[in-house]
């Protein structure tokens, strides 16, 4: 009887172990394998090398993997994906240096590094990131504050003014939810309305026409990658109809 029970336990253990391995190796669980599936072989290897180098430098490499997979799913050209990943890795390196320097060498969290890199992509420089980090209350995560700064800058607010707005709210101990409402404080389109394309960039914010869906204005991991309260011009809230300016002036017309 004991022998039969022992055999049953051994078989059960083998089945559980096999199932665990199968899950670990299943599709979607290994970003590197997914990158090799969705990108041409040469591009995939270069992207993986960039991701690996970022991981070795202590950067949030998963954000780079997700970036490449997201753009591949959208049908972005492989060479543009490769360039976007490489550029964002460089920004994350600069962001980590700026944040750590402002905190006496303490390593920032991965979501803070990614948020700071996105703010830099919007036009905030390393000095601005450091200034916000130095002025923030001790122990306060800067992931959402930096995402909000990037969203404000993307909507046309100068970076120093965007940083000042967020800094002032941080000093009053504003919550993340309160900060997220800042870009909509002056109505649809943000403080100064939608921003035109930057020099050397197509509309969409990134060279080559890639628009990043997860930038401040976006809480990491939030539903649909969007952050509550951060919407583009003419985007309705709570499912209501959007509005658009009527050519030649006059009241806006509603879109269905």
Instruction: For the largest sheet, list the strands in their spatial order.
Output: 1-2
Please give the share of residues in helix. Answer: 40-55%
Shape: elongated
Structural class: mainly alpha
Q: How many independent structural domains?
A: 1
Q: What is the C-alpha radius of gyration, as a whole number of Å?
A: 22 Å
Strand percentage lies at under 5%
What is the CA-CA span between the terminal residues?
A: 72 Å
What does this protein look like?
There is one protein chain. The chain has helices spanning 2-24, 31-38, 41-56, 61-73, 78-102, 110-122, 126-135, 143-154, 159-171, 176-180; strands spanning 242-244, 253-255. With 256 residues, the protein is an all-alpha fold. The protein has one domain. The protein has a two-stranded antiparallel sheet with strand order 1-2. Helix 2 (31-38) packs antiparallel against helix 3 (41-56), helix 3 (41-56) packs antiparallel against helix 4 (61-73) and helix 6 packs parallel to helix 8 (143-154). The longest helix is centred in the middle third of the chain and has 25 residues, at 78-102. It starts with a helix and ends with a strand.
């Amino acid at each position: 009887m004991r022998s039969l029970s022992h055999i049953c336990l051994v078989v059960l253990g083998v089945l559980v172990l096999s199932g665990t391995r199968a899950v670990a190796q299943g599709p979607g669980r290994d970003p590197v394998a997914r990158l090799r599936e969705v990108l041409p072989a040469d591009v995939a290897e270069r992207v993986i090398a960039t991701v690996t180098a970022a991981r070795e430098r202590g950067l949030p490499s998963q954000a780079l993997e997700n970036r490449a997979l997201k753009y591949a799913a959208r049908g972005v050209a492989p060479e543009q994906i490769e360039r976007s990943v490489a550029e964002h890795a460089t920004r994350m390196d600069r962001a980590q240096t700026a944040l750590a320097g402002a905190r006496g060498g303490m390593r920032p969290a991965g979501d803070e590094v990614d948020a700071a890199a996105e703010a830099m992509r919007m036009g905030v420089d390393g000095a601005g990131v450091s200034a916000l980090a130095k002025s923030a209350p001790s122990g306060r995560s800067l992931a959402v504050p930096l995402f909000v700064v990037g969203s404000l800058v993307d909507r046309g607010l100068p970076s120093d003014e965007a940083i000042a707005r967020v800094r002032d709210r941080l000093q009053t101990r504003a919550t993340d939810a309160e900060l997220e409402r800042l870009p909509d404080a002056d109505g649809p389109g943000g403080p100064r309305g939608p921003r035109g394309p930057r020099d050397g960039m197509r509309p969409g914010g990134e060279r080559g026409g890639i628009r990043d869906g997860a930038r401040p204005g976006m809480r990491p991991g939030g539903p649909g990658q969007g952050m509550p309260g951060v919407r583009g011009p003419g985007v309705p809230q709570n499912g209501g109809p959007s509005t658009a300016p009527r050519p030649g002036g006059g009241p806006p017309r509603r879109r269905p």
